[in-house]
C-alpha cells in the first residue's frame, strides 16, 4: 500500500527515508493488536508502512472515542516521544500492519533538522484537524457527521468502480460511532437515512458511495 498524500513519510527525501530505516527496525502486528496504550510513557515512534490503525481514547465512563484513522506513511506517537508525557491515545491495528519503530526519536530529530521542521508543520496540521472536528460536533447532526467521515474515508482510501466509490471500511459500527461522537443506534439510523436517499450502499465492512456530491451536500 502506498503512503497517503500529506503523511509524514511522503515529506521525506529518499536519503532521509533510508536514514529513518537505519535508525529503526521493521515490525509487524496482527489485526486487533494494541500498538500503543493511552497513559504509557515511551520515547519510540512508529512510521506506518502498510495497513491502517485507529487512534482512540476512553472517557471516564469507559466509552471509546475514535480520534483518527491513520494509514501508510503516518507517524504515530511523536508527542509522547518529544515531550516525555504519557501517551494521549491508544493505537490499535484495524488490519495487519507493518512499520518502522524508531527509539530515542529526539536524537534522530537532533541530527535531522529539516525533518524536525517538517514535524512542526505536521503537528500543526493535526491540531487544525482536531479543531475542525470539534466544530463539526457542535454544528452538524449525526447524519452530517457520518457523511463527513465517509467522505474522508473515500478521499483517502476510495476505489472508483462502475457503481461509485467503494471504500473498504476498516471500522465496525461501534467504532464509526466513536469516530462521530454518537451512539451506535444513531449511526445506524444515519446510515439508513443515507441509504434511503440513494447516496450510499453498505455491506460488511464496506460502503459504496453512489453520489459523492449529494453526500457532500448532506455533510454540509
Automatic annotation (TrEMBL):
<dbReference type="InterPro" id="IPR012318">
    <property type="entry name" value="HTH_CRP"/>
</dbReference>
<protein>
    <submittedName>
        <fullName>Cyclic nucleotide-binding protein</fullName>
    </submittedName>
</protein>
<keyword id="KW-0805">Transcription regulation</keyword>
<dbReference type="InterPro" id="IPR036388">
    <property type="entry name" value="WH-like_DNA-bd_sf"/>
</dbReference>
<dbReference type="InterPro" id="IPR000595">
    <property type="entry name" value="cNMP-bd_dom"/>
</dbReference>
<dbReference type="InterPro" id="IPR050397">
    <property type="entry name" value="Env_Response_Regulators"/>
</dbReference>
<dbReference type="InterPro" id="IPR014710">
    <property type="entry name" value="RmlC-like_jellyroll"/>
</dbReference>
<feature type="domain" description="Cyclic nucleotide-binding">
    <location>
        <begin position="8"/>
        <end position="93"/>
    </location>
</feature>
<dbReference type="GO" id="GO:0003700">
    <property type="term" value="F:DNA-binding transcription factor activity"/>
</dbReference>
<dbReference type="GO" id="GO:0003677">
    <property type="term" value="F:DNA binding"/>
</dbReference>
<dbReference type="Pfam" id="PF13545">
    <property type="entry name" value="HTH_Crp_2"/>
</dbReference>
<keyword id="KW-0804">Transcription</keyword>
<dbReference type="GO" id="GO:0005829">
    <property type="term" value="C:cytosol"/>
</dbReference>
<keyword id="KW-0238">DNA-binding</keyword>
<dbReference type="Pfam" id="PF00027">
    <property type="entry name" value="cNMP_binding"/>
</dbReference>
<dbReference type="InterPro" id="IPR018490">
    <property type="entry name" value="cNMP-bd_dom_sf"/>
</dbReference>
<dbReference type="InterPro" id="IPR036390">
    <property type="entry name" value="WH_DNA-bd_sf"/>
</dbReference>
<feature type="domain" description="HTH crp-type">
    <location>
        <begin position="140"/>
        <end position="213"/>
    </location>
</feature>
